[in-house]
Each structure stands twice: as structure tokens, then as C-alpha cells.
Model the fold of this input.
Amino acid sequence: MKIKTACGLEKYDELKKRTGFFAKLRLQWFVVFASIRDAFK
Done:
């Protein structure tokens, strides 16, 4: 995980608390795109 921004880390913690298949899928989707976006910061 390479999320650097404070708001990104907050959202990651919020999504990580959720349960269920779609919640886990959304978490992985978020990590991928947030890591790409934050790679250039």
C-alpha cells in the first residue's frame, strides 16, 4: 500500500472496516487507484 495523503488514509481505514464481498472488492479497487494517484505526489 502506497497511499500517502491524509484523506486517502482516512478513506482506506473506513473501507477496511466494512465486511462483505463487494466491500472487499471496493477496498482493493480504491487501493489500486489511490496508489497510482499518490505515486506522483
The chain has a mean pLDDT of 89. Residues 21-38 form the longest helix (18 residues). Residues 6 and 12 are 10 Å apart (CA to CA). The helical segments are 6-17, 21-38.
